[in-house]
Design the sequence.
């Protein structure tokens, strides 16, 4: 194919040739700008998601300041009721103080340095901001006194709960006034150690 | 010569210059070629324009969203900080919930055992113990009641009452009650006995089995 034959063809279909050149330019433009549209769509999607998140945050945060203040006050009040591990004498004295209000005779209070397996990291009742101090208490009381005392432990100023408990009697528990020997493993919520 | 004329009677020399002859087809080739070329340009052009318009719209949308985000960025930062403060404070409360979380309290167990006790049975000891299951890392509880009975039927009745107790059968736990007794004392005529109440989370295999059985129903 010579130049003259190409020129002949051009002379024969000039409009088609011009159209072909325009078409090539258009296709090249589409090809070159292909990434632009894709990246703009991704960017628009990301920004829309972020905007929705911001709007969601605004909705979720409605009145949250008041709730946070109230919660913070409750937490502060709660923190004041926690045992402090270093104040061992004060803690032990607090546990003995129940003798004054309830019909129990506490013969021994021992403080254990061991950690309760339920409250350690990964345990079923994991504590993230607190620790639990373990005390073993030996006491004697009658049935009514024991029930009152145990109930009071759960409703006292300090946060306490019973881990293990063993009650025995030299005789059988025939009457409500019979003396019972009680061993308690008491867990007290304390500041994080 | 005469013989040749007879052999090719209809042959004539073709002296036409085909390129200069007029196009007499119904639809001329010029028109078809130009039409196809023009159509191709129009289709591709419309496609390009549509993409460019979409790009323009996206650019405008992005600018608008960026402006909105920039306007609410400070508020959002404040909201996030507030949320962090709330979550931090909530962790203390969650700790307190975790500390007390249990299906029952020991004094409730004593009350329940006392309520379930038949009149003729004498309780000599009671122990309550909580454990952490090694495998599942869940809480389990065991209650051991030491007792004395004149008749084994009474022990059986006590065991049945404990096994049916609503409090000793908490949700998501499996309760088993096992009784044991020693030989009858010849002096007092009573059977020293023990009742073990074990309250454990269901094992995964038995959970699946129970579910399968329910589906069968």
Sequence:
């Amino acid at each position: 194919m010579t130049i003259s034959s190409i020129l002949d063809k051009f002379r024969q279909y000039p409009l088609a040739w011009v159209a072909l050149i325009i078409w090539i330019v258009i296709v090249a433009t589409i090809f070159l700008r292909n990434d632009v549209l894709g990246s703009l769509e991704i960017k628009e999607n990301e920004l829309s998601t972020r905007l929705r998140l911001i709007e969601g945050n605004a909705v979720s945060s409605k009145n949250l300041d008041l709730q946070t203040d109230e919660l913070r006050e409750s937490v502060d009040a709660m923190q004041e009721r926690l045992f402090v591990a270093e104040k061992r004498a004060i803690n032990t004295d607090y546990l003995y103080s129940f003798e004054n209000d309830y019909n129990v005779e506490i013969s021994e209070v021992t403080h254990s340095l061991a950690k309760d397996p339920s409250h350690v990291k990964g345990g079923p009742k994991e504590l993230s901001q607190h620790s639990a101090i373990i005390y073993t208490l030996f006491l004697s009381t009658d049935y009514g006194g024991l029930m009152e005392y145990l109930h009071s432990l759960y409703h006292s100023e300090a946060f306490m709960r019973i881990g293990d408990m063993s009650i025995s009697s030299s005789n059988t528990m025939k009457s409500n006034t019979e003396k019972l020997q009680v061993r308690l493993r008491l867990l007290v919520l304390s500041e994080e150690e | 010569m005469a013989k040749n004329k007879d052999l090719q009677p209809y042959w004539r020399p073709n002296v036409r210059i085909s390129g200069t002859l007029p196009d007499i087809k119904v639809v001329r080739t010029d028109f078809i070629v130009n039409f196809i070329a023009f159509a191709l340009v129009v289709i591709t052009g419309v496609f390009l324009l549509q993409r460019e318009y979409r790009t323009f719209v996206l650019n405008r949308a992005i600018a608008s969203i960026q402006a909105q985000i920039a306007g609410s960025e400070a508020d959002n930062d404040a909201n996030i900080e507030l949320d962090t403060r709330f979550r931090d404070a909530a962790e203390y409360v969650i700790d307190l919930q975790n500390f007390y979380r249990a299906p029952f309290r020991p004094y409730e167990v004593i009350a329940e055992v006392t309520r379930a006790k038949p009149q003729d049975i004498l309780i000599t000891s009671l122990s309550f113990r909580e454990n952490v299951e090694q495998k599942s890392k869940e809480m389990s509880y065991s209650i051991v009641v030491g007792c004395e009975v004149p008749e084994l039927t009474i022990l059986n009745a006590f065991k049945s009452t404990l096994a049916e107790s609503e409090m000793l059968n908490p949700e998501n736990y499996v309760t088993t009650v096992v009784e044991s007794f020693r030989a009858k004392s010849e002096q007092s005529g009573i059977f020293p006995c023990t009742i073990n109440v074990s309250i454990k989370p269901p094992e995964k295999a038995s959970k699946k089995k129970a579910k399968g059985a329910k589906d069968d129903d």
Observations:
- Helices of chain B lie at 2-7, 29-100, 106-116, 152-164, 204-216.
